[in-house]
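Researcher: Quick sanity check before group meeting.
Model: Go ahead. Protein one:
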Amino acid sequence: MNPVLAVVAGQQGGVFSRRQALEAGYTPEQVQERLKAGRWHRVRHGQYAERVDLSELTPWERELWLHRQLVHAAMNSMKPGTSVVSHHSALILHGIPVWEVDLSEVQLTRTSGWRSGRSAGVMHHRGPLGAPDIGSRHGLAVTVIGRALVESAAAASFEAAVVSADAVLRSGELTDDELRRVLVPTEFWAGGPTIRAALAFADPLAESVGESRLRVLMHDQRLPAPVLQAGFKDAAGFVGRVDFYFPDHSTVVEFDGLLKYATGSSDVLIREKTREDRLRALGLEVVRLTWLDLAQPARTAAAIRRAFDRSRRTHVPA
């Protein structure tokens, strides 16, 4: 890519239009040649980017990367000042995890007289946005983090809303005053009850998408509310923090995203085994769960309840 186009693309998330490529000195034939050779790829009609090797990323990271390119391409296709990135697209630009969303579709809120609806991979929303509702991320106008959260939660399941709400609270970017402000216009939204329920349930101590989803599973399966990130010590010192602790049942539940085991390092496995042995030596039942367990809520809840039963039998007074 020549230096002129490289500067333009660098300001637009790596995305540039056909017109911008021509203005940077490329001929129509050179544009087609680069597309045909696979050096550039078409992000959407008339919007391109240099092909990047994403093989080192996880499938989910690749999807987020491509969604960010779609957002830049969509905004680059719009007349300046007519659209704001919103809903889950804005959350992604804020670096907030999302769940159960269509990453092939960009979410924009129009600030001009454009009708709402889907068109060419973009969902156009209509809604009043005041100056406090609009911020900037990666050179794009986006709804601020609180507004983006309630927009996304209004159209989401309780589980998906909690995933993002936990992360927003964990980020520390949403003040109580700002939360109250963005909630005011949602009182009569169709998704208002989900927004309020998710925010009431949200907890910044949930440290990942998996932990947030497991919290919802426990709630839905009528398990008692656990303590999050409880720390334990033994005679040798600090053992560690656990994801979930049920003090009335002397049981801890750990969620393993498995990424920490990806290298296959024996040192990591040994440390985890030693840590678990020390927790058990404190008289605790330990239940380890993974992503696969989230897909089977009843069975997973039963496994936790069996740990409660084992603990109760172990701690029966003499």
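Researcher: Fine. The other one?
Model: Protein two, sequence then structure:
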Amino acid sequence: MKNLRLMIAAVCLCALGLLSTPASAQTKELVLWHAYRADEKDALEKVVAQFNAANAAKGIKVTTLAVPYDAYADKISATVPRGKGPDLFIFAQDRLGGWTEAGNMEPFDFFMDDATRKRFIPTTMEAMTYRGTVYGLPLNYKVITLIYNKKLVPVPPKTSGELVAMAKKLTDKKAGRFGLAYSYGDFYYHAALMNGFGGGVFGPNATPTLNSAQNLKSVEQMMKWAEKDGIMPSEPSTALITSLFNEGKAAMVFSGPWFLGEIAKGVDYGLAPLPTLDEAGGKPMRPWMTVEGVYISAQSKNKEAAYEVANFLTSTEAAKVLALQGRQSPANQAVYADPKIAGDAQLKAFRDQVEVAVPMPNVPEMSMVWSPATSAMNAILKKASTPKAALDGAQKAVAKDVAGLRKK
């Protein structure tokens, strides 16, 4: 009877929540998706392991899953609405608006305070904001800058005039040598000139502006470098640019951190800010900045715990690991005061460049831009169209697609 009474009492206590349940039953298991590989993946997993160790007593455990990049966005779009996706995921801001409109994203404003907002480089927070609401915490950013061969360019140019003068001396087309090489036919890379001239793809209310006067000037400047000045290869594929730089046949390149891993070990290179534009009154070239944020699925059943994870991943402690081991550029501002990071030439160069970078638009309408813009750039380079006619065509196509999107 005594044992029976004890069993009954235990059941009652459990029902009232007064008796502890096994730790395994209390554990909140969260899944984090990302697309990192190599050093970036190792650094992220190290930070997640630190979080798990620090939060074991709370019963919060994070498991990471590396998703192939090519399939990543489609997997988010397909799984999150059905509650089959991750609790958290890391991705660039270009899909933020579309995913928000689809109801996939959990707003962050409820969780955040002023101190958290001020933790980050302001433009990276801008990238995480859609229609006035924050939907993620910025983890790191990527931006293009000037990468140069120190043997050929002892002191990098600070202005477009210096760039052209220096590049002309280093160009010998017959020998296959060029002063400057970058993917100028790629609209993403061209954005540095476009934004530098004060152009852009949208005006107020995401109204397309591809054929603006400023955008036309930027294309004309690009063609001047390619044709009149003759300082760039005519068909700059990614493979060609890498090959030229590694062979000492391209003195300067406009590219981002992804290019650094392709540089041959024997090449002594440096990084510097993109030059200012004499043709635009001395304004800086302003490349697009892509910001990878940590987002919470609207379907997650453990949103408060998920925010704790996002908060930790973007902390100064985590940022140091991601920077030094993962070779990423954290959005966290305070980490750049660390002596090891402040003394890292690569990290400093990208941090300097981001001061004038422009967050890539995160509105759903941005997905309508790429195809028409790419077609326009190809037509211009192949002389199939004048710059003005090509941009007018792109403007018409984007405006039509945007109008169709808004009717849905």
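Researcher: One line on it for the slide.
Model: The domain at 145-286+369-407 is CATH 3.40.190.10 (D-Maltodextrin-Binding Protein; domain 2).
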